[in-house]
Specification:
Layout (H helix, E strand, L loop, with lengths): L1 H13 L7 H19 L10 H12 L9
């Protein structure tokens, strides 16, 4: 699983890129991971939905469900 992430990261961001500073590289990597990979990119574990779409579907399905308070 981790190998797949790094392969995707290298293919989308690293290969062919020249970063002038470490700060620039960090900013670009942060943008890719936090904005694209974690929010937009579709994941096989989520039935090929993006994490945001999966979360919306999850909460939509919870509407009307009975939640029991066990405390």
């Amino acid at each position: 699983m981790t190998e797949n992430f790094f392969h995707t990261l290298k293919g989308h961001v690293v290969h062919g890129s020249v970063f002038t500073t470490r700060k620039e590289a960090n900013a670009i990597l942060f943008e890719y991971i936090e904005v694209y990979y974690n929010r937009i990119r579709r994941h096989s574990a989520n039935d090929w939905l993006s994490p945001e779409a999966f979360e919306l579907k999850y909460f939509y399905n919870l509407e009307g469900s009975v939640v029991l308070d066990t405390v």
